[in-house]
Amino acid sequence: xxxxxxxxxxxxxxxxxxxxxxxxxxDILLGVGLNIVTTIFIVVLGxxxxxxxxxxxxxxxxxxxxxSVLYFVPAIGACLSVLEIIFVWKKEHNSQFxxxxxxxxxxxxxxxxxxxxxxxxxxxxxxxxxSRVLCFWWILKPILGVFRLVTTFPSLEVSVCIxxxxxxxxxxxxxxxxxxxRVKRESFKRSLLGDPLLSYDSSLEEGGHHDLETNESIxxxxxxxxxxxxxxxxxxxxxxxxxxLQIPTNMAPSSCHDIISSCxxxxxxxxxxxxxxxxxxxxxxxxxxxxxxLLKVINDCIGFAGPLLLNKLIQFLQQGSVTSDGYLLAVSLxxxxxxxxxxxTQYSFRLAKLKLKLRSSIMTLIYDKCLRVNxxxxxxxxxxxxxxxxxxxxDRTVNLCNSFHxxxxxxxxxxxxxxxxxxQVKFAFVSGLAITILLIPVNKWISQLIAIxxxxxxxxxxxxxxxxxxxxxxxxxxxxxxxxLIFSSWLMETRSLEVKHLATRKYLDAWCVFFWATTxxxxxxxTFGLFTLMGNQLDAAxxxxxxxxxxxxxxxxxxxPWVINGLxxxxxxxxxxxxxxxxxxxxxxxxDTGSSSSSFLSKQPDSSQRLAIIxxxxxxxxxxxxxxxxxxVLNHVTLSLSKGSFVAIIGEVGSGKSSLLYSVLGEAxxxxxxxxxxxxxxxxxxxxxxxxxxxxxxxxFGKSYDPVRYRDTLQACALxxxxxxxxxxxxxxxxxxxxxLSGGQRARLALAxxxxxxxxxxxxxxxxxxxxxxxxxxxxxxxxxxxxxxxxTILLCTHNVQAISLADVVVVMDKGHVKWLGSSAAFPISSxxxxxxxxxxxxxxxxxxxxxxxxxxxxxxxxxxxxKEIVHSPEIAExxxxxxxxxxxxxxxxVYKNYxxxxxxxxxxxxxxxxxxxxxxxNGNDLWLSYWVDTTETGQTAHSVSxxxxxxxxxxxxxxxxxxxxxxxxxxxxxxxxIKVHNRLLSKLINAPVRFFDQTPGGRILNRLxxxxxxxDDSLPFIMNILLANFIGLLGIAIILSxxxxxxxxxxxxxxxxxSKLQFFYRSTSRELRRLDSVSRSPIYTSFSETLDGTSTIxxxxxxxxxxxxxxxxxxxxxxxxxxxxxASLWLSLRLQLLGAFIISxxxxxxxxxxxxxxxxxxxxPGLVGLALSYAAPIVSLLGSFLTSFTETEKExxxxxxxxxxxxxxxxxxxxxxxxNPDWPNLGVIEFxxxxxxxxPSLAPAICNLSFTIAGGTQVGIIGRTGAGKSSVLNAxxxxxxxCSGSILVDGMDIRxxxxxxxxxxxxxxPQSPFLFNGSLRENLDPFKMSDDLKIxxxxxxxxxxxxxEEAGGLDILVKEGGISFSVGQRQLLCLARALLKSSKVLCLxxxxxxxxxxxxxxxxxxxxxxxxxxxxxTIAHRISTVLNMDSILILDHGNLAxxxxxxxxxxxxxxxxxxxxxxxxx
Length: 1467
Description:
Elements: H1 2-8, H2 23-53, H3 64-93, H4 100-121, H5 125-129, H6 132-152, H7 158-192, H8 196-201, H9 211-215, H10 218-223, H11 228-236, H12 253-270, H13 277-303, H14 305-319, H15 325-372, H16 375-378, H17 383-398, H18 400-425, H19 429-473, H20 475-481, H21 484-533, H22 540-581, H23 596-603, E1 611-621, E2 634-642, E3 646-651, H24 657-665, E4 669-677, E5 681-684, E6 693-694, H25 695-700, H26 707-716, H27 720-724, E7 733-734, H28 743-757, E8 761-765, H29 773-784, E9 793-797, H30 801-806, E10 809-814, E11 817-822, H31 829-832, H32 845-857, H33 876-879, H34 893-903, H35 905-938, H36 945-990, H37 994-999, H38 1002-1044, H39 1047-1100, H40 1104-1155, H41 1166-1176, H42 1179-1206, E12 1230-1237, E13 1247-1254, E14 1259-1263, H43 1270-1277, E15 1285-1290, E16 1293-1294, H44 1300-1305, E17 1308-1310, E18 1319-1320, H45 1321-1325, H46 1333-1342, H47 1346-1352, E19 1358-1359, H48 1368-1381, E20 1386-1390, H49 1398-1411, E21 1416-1420, H50 1424-1427, E22 1432-1437, E23 1440-1445, H51 1447-1452, H52 1457-1464
Parallel strand pairs: 3-9, 3-10, 5-8, 8-9, 14-21, 14-22, 17-20, 20-21
Antiparallel strand pairs: 1-2, 1-4, 6-7, 10-11, 12-13, 12-15, 15-16, 18-19, 22-23
């Protein structure tokens, strides 16, 4: 045995040579041994397949890239093996000693690649090459090969070293490729078995194809040349969505949603108690992500070839050799950088594609959930929270992709770097490592504090966005109350808490940056210090290899805290999303027991088939399923309603009418009982939900267009005349929430939607209250009871006596119980209408039926004119919503100046100065080290080691100090900017006129205050910090390289020219893409916000799929923009990295040329040459990082640009030269003098030359058909819209001379749409705390709502968002109580009794008549009975005063307009 070992390993120990494992042992065990095992596997599998199994797997077609890997890589491997054999033969031929172990290793490598080539050609190659055993072995073999290469690397010759490295690289490439292809093939087979969802998952990033990628060549895909057409267009014109790249089919949002929803359903099934979105994402995309990890391993390993080649090159320069090895090393250094550039960009590309899939998956999942969770379940979350899920949490969860691989990749990079340091300085590196290890618990503690601060910050952010949404939704009402300042102060309180936690996080981040940025400097001083103190001498090769390794350590060390933070944020966000997504979903027919329906139906076997709705012993609440059922809105209600019946549901305010409809819809939480509804449903809520879109879109609601039915629907709902007057007719655009329609038009449009839908059961919640009596009469007979609704079951919540008298069934609700149920004939209407004058009710049901036909033919055309609270002209259809502005060209320098002003001049100077001094101290540290090396090598040192160390320590201390100053300056400056931007933006929005909010969708404004502000708060300071560090770093490198190698100055100019051209070409496109990205994001949030308001309507109409498809369209555009943006940035990154590779090659080649002493110019000492080479290495990443960070900063600055746009919006005229007394107006005399009002210059006047006087202390009603200009009078009085001409006097004082907020606070109003906000009831009624509890209770009693408030829990009860815990009628009564508390001499009522029952309305009018004596009361009315007992009425027509006088006098005058109104009306 000993003889055999001596034969194999002559002149060498077999295992250990005293310092490490011997070359012989590593060649035999890690070389020949591995190759023999590989060969055995291939041969055994080949013969086994041939003899027993036959040909399998050939049914899957191999793509061109796969073929190139399977056949081309083994061929190169065989060639390299032959080359190795030639090198061994050459050494032996030159009489150098070569052991047999070298021959055995080279030959065994050739045999492996030859076997692979041979078996790849046979018919069963797929079974052999892709077998599980061999695929696993090809992961293990390269890892062991890398270990062998690293241990033998220092002892190899340059040429052999390069060949050996290429062989290992080929093994890694081949192993990765066959594993990826195998997984793809298995996924394909699964899809053939009938699981189409998994086919998308099988499109792994490494090999997934789509239309674009399959049409392009491999070279184009590798170099991202397919983006060139987009970039060419970006240079010459403004890009739009048609110019973008098409996204791959496997990235389509619908495909991504299918995958994630199936995985999420599996989570709900398998782990119903605690489902996890994170696990669902792993199930959907885990394998794709893991295989990307293999690509990252290869990329990271190649990154270490640079320092090793650098070591060899400096050793070569020190020796002064004249062989060609120097040139080979210089070229290899450049080639390594080139290979890494391609791998790096391909990894980033495939990771970005996966992130886009993840983002669309999460966003569509959230949207889909919102469509399917009922209002009771959703009450656990505020709208602000849900919007944060979409805008912030989705992005944070997606960022998990970046952080997760980095958690193992960064430690691996650090570990390999430390091992290579050990090979250079032995155990001296342990001192540097000790510093690093000591900082780990510190950083862990800081990370935990950051996590706590982040979670608290997100809670405050949710609350701020909720409050902001509330402010934007009710801004018109808030301005009329004069409450916008107190609302903004509450918002500022929330913002200050958010900023407090943001500041905690930023300063903790600054400590993280400081610790990790100073670690490499500390590492170098401790390592070199201990090495020299141990008695060793520094030499150039060792020092600058170590410096290159320290530079390699900088990125992973600096990145690690951000990676940890990203992981923490991602896990927090995924937990928040999991909690929302696990909410129980809406079910329309629900019960507490499975048999309750059958038991109920069994009692009525004959009639069960004729019943449309069954409600059996139902109790409902607005609490969610995981909360105890408190405050029942329905108590043990039992109903059975026949098909085709017309049911009127009546009752006092808060009696449970709307709650009954919501329960049938499945929106309320069913605590007990059973509800069944037979057939399809349609629903019109009490507050109509109108889509942003055309009139036709709102009516069709996703249904197909039937011209005849559509025309009949418009006529039945009295919309035909309105539509004729609009530009574009039914294709006219309606703004957000129907802002360019009157209240009556919104109600009729929502009704038209239900009529056109033709569902079996139609539920209408008080649709008649928003229209005047004539229109109500028309739509009752032609729409609700017309031919289009024949045979339908209709449930109508109403206070309208006509409707009650015509109903088949009347249901009287009282405090959540059914008080009375029967036919309308048996119902005592007189008790319900005892307050009404006889002339209002003298038309019987019979008269109505007889006059129906005559009414339909003589319907007054003016009744449907568009009422103009906001607009009064057809032009508005085109002009009402302005297209979102998108700036062109580069971000202006003024934006940067503004941001610097926000940061503060002193802080800006401190940041820049500290960054420059930090880099200077670091460069000085490296120059001093170079000087130390040179003096040591020449033996000319005049100082002790301690002197050199002391200077090194001084540089280190200075560097650490300026690093700390820079980190905290940036944190402080970023916070200052965030605070100032938010405060100024909010101030400008608060003072903007109402017209701005009418023309700008709320989602667009909210986007500024959520996504854009989040960018300014968090990511902009972070990326600017990186930009500054990169710029100063590049400047330092350029100065050092120019100082060391004068030829670099020659290269500097052409390099700068190429660099500037590249960045100009790229930035022209990237700016446009970023702006497109922001603009394409707004529709997502606008659509999402709109959907949140109308989910109950969408579910009732079963239109979830239609709205989901529309949302998918928005997401698709967003995906296309992001995909194009990603490819463009990688196009640039690749070219910059190739430019950096050229610089490295140039520096290295010039160093080799200089070492030959063949040029007259001296290239410096070995220390300086080593310094230049170590500085040239990181230039690859720094160049790319600089332009990426510059472009990212420019992209992020778009958020500042967008915020600045809204800091330049028009402002309300706040000024006024008069200071009024606190008790003004003390008389309440109001005088309009020739007042003309236009909503836009291009529109017809909404009020035209209007003059009238209202005496102080009188009660005046303003009536007129829809569009007459009634609400415009109040708009003018409250200065919501500036008047064009004329003047308005209050107590003889021109209101233009009174400060606008002071004017509004001295007038009281009850708006048409009741407004309650999230907070205590006391805050809702008296936010300024001006009244005591006794006064508040007195006001509630006057408004007949005291009893309900006492039952709910008193003044301290929490009013939910939008006042959802109260009925619409109760909300209106609370708004009236709020107005009475104001104690103003002028009270304006904008049809405040429209949504209350007739008895409550009667009590209210009695209250107003008795309790408001001495006050001037202006009432806008639809009901004739509302104004009969008033002192005076004004009748408006097309903005003109048609008639004025006492209603009783006018009633007796048969020729008066008012008299004709009363005759036509029967309420």
